[in-house]
Amino acid sequence: MPKVLIIDDDELICETLVKVFNRMGYDIFYQLTLKDGLEQIFADNIDIVFLDVSLPDGNGLQAIKSIKKHPFAPEIIIITGNENIDGAELAIRSNAWDYISKTGSMKKFKFALDRAFEYRKQKQAVQSKHTVKRDLIIGESPLILSCIDKVSKAAVNDIPVLISGETGTGKELFSRMIHINSKRSHAGFIVVDCAALPEYLVESTLFGHVKGAFTGADSSKAGLMEMADKGTLFLDEVGELPLNIQKKFLRALQEKQFRPVGGQNEIKSDFRLISATHRDIGAMVKENKFREDFYFRIFSMNIHLPPLKDRKDDIKLIVQNHLSNNKNFSKENLCSVSDEFLRELQIYDWPGNVRELITIIDLAQSEAGAGSILFPHHLPSHLRVFNIRNKFDNSTVRDMSEDFVSPAVQNIGNTLKFKDYIEKMKCEYLRVLLSNVQGNIQHACKRSGLSKSQLYRLMQQYDLKNN
Ligand SMILES: Nc1ncnc2c1ncn2[C@@H]1O[C@H](COP(=O)(O)OP(=O)(O)OP(=O)(O)O)[C@@H](O)[C@H]1O
C-alpha cells in the first residue's frame, strides 16, 4: 500500500486528511514537526509527503532540496495557508510535485495525491527496468525476468522479503541482488544458515551473548543481528528457525532492538530482513510448526524462483556464461559445446537446479580437458541414463499413440457404434503393445498393467499372437 506522510503542525488538518486518504486506500501517517517528519520519511520509505511551509521548527520549502537529494526521495506536495507566488515558484524549482492551498477543496487534495502516486509508480517502473544491477543472474526467460522485476521493486523499498524455491534455484543470489541494488548496499550482507546451526547455538549466534552467559562464554560476543546494522540480514532456510527464537526475532524486527543472551541492556540494530526457504511455510503455519505472526511479518513480499526445468531456454545462456568465466582455463583454452551436448542438457529435469547445472558443466570440462568441445559422452552417466529412459518412454508412448489412435479416430465421424469403436481401440492397443515389446509377455504386462492371464485372454479374444 502506498505510504503518505503529512507534515503539518495543525492537527485538525492532519486528521481530516488521514480520514479522507485512508478511504482512498493509502497508508497514511502524520507528524507535527519538521524534524519528526524528516526522520519518518526515510525510516518508513514514504512515497508521498504533504509538507506544510511554516512549521514550528523550520520551513518546509527550504527542506525540499535536502529531501530530494536522497535516491529514494518521496514526491512532495507543498501545502500552505498563505499562498504566494514566490513560494510556489521556489517549490516547483526545488522539484516539488505540486503546491496547493489549504483552503482549496478536498477534491484538489485527492487529485494531487492520485496524480503524484501515478507519476511515482511510472518512475519506479522505469527505474526498475533500467537500473537494477543483475550481472550475476543469468537468464532471459519470461519467468526469470519477472523475478528480476520483483528484485528491482524490492530494492527500492525496505520491507521484509521471503524468497522461495527449490534448492539451487538462486535464493541466496537473488537476495544479494536485492541488497546490492538497495540503499543499504554500503553496509553488510550477513548470512545466517538456520539449517546449519545447532539449536543450542541459534540464539547466541543471532542475538550475541555477554561474558558468563553460559558455560564457555569467556567473553562477550556480538551476534549476527548486530553485525547487520544498516545492512541486510539474510535468514537462509528460515523454516528451520525454532519457534521460541521466532518469537524473540519478531520482537527484534518490530522494535529494531533486542537483548543479547544473558544481557540486561537492549542493543539497537536497524537491518533489512530477507528470508529464504524451500519449504511451504504456509502449510507449516497450519500445522503449528511455524508462528503465524512471524510468517506474516517476513512474508510482506514474496519472490518465488522457478525450477530450472520450467525455464530450459536459460540453460544455454548459463552454460555459455559459466564456460567463458571459468577461471581454471586460460582464454585460449576455453571449452566450447556441441549442439548434442546442449540437447542432452535440455532433456534432463535438473532436481538440483542451477547449482547442479554448474557442477555438471565443471565435471564435463574436467572430463574433456582444456580447449575441448563438450559432447554428450562427457556428461556423468546418471544424467545420460535418465535421458535414455526419458527418450525411450516418450518414444513408446508416441509410437503407440500414432499407430493406434489415428485409424480409430478417423472412423469416429463415420458409422462406427461406440461399442465397435472401443473394441477396435482395444485390439489396436494390444497389437502395438506386443509389437513394441517384440512379443515379450513379461514386458507387455509391465507396461500395460495387465496380468498374464488377462493378457492371454485378450490375445485370444482378438486373435493376436506374441511374435
Ligand atoms: N539465475 C542464475 N544465474 C546464474 N547463476 C545462478 C542463477 N541461479 C543460481 N545460480 C548459481 O547457482 C548456485 C546456487 O545458487 P544459490 O546458492 O543462490 O541457490 P539457493 O536457492 O540459495 O540454494 P539452497 O536452497 O540449496 O541454499 C550458485 O552458484 C549461484 O550463483
UniProtKB/TrEMBL annotation:
Domain of life of the organism encoding this protein: Bacteria
A UniProt-annotated Pfam family: AAA_lid_14
Record GO biological process: phosphorelay signal transduction system; regulation of DNA-templated transcription
Ranges where the Sigma-54 factor interaction domain occurs: 137-366
Boundaries of every Response regulatory domain copy: 3-117
PROSITE patterns: RESPONSE_REGULATORY, SIGMA54_INTERACT_1, SIGMA54_INTERACT_2, SIGMA54_INTERACT_3, SIGMA54_INTERACT_4
Modified positions (4-aspartylphosphate) in chain numbering: D52
Keywords: ATP-binding, DNA-binding, Nucleotide-binding, Phosphoprotein, Transcription, Transcription regulation
SUPFAM superfamilies: CheY-like (SSF52172), Homeodomain-like (SSF46689), P-loop containing nucleoside triphosphate hydrolases (SSF52540)
GO molecular function: ATP binding; DNA binding
PANTHER family per UniProt: ALGINATE BIOSYNTHESIS TRANSCRIPTIONAL REGULATORY PROTEIN ALGB (PTHR32071:SF113), TRANSCRIPTIONAL REGULATORY PROTEIN (PTHR32071)
Descriptive protein name: Two-component system, NtrC family, response regulator
Organism of provenance: Desulfobacula phenolica
